[in-house]
Amino acid sequence: MSAQKIATVAMIAAIYAVLTVLVAPLSHGLVRFGSRKF
Asked: Transmembrane ranges (predicted)?
């Protein structure tokens, strides 16, 4: 594996981790809000 490939994989992993951290509370809040509403 070249250094550039490792850097690309690390960047994708970091973006995926940030998205997961941001989306998880949002989706959890939406589910909680929806179940309270209906």
From this structure: 6-31
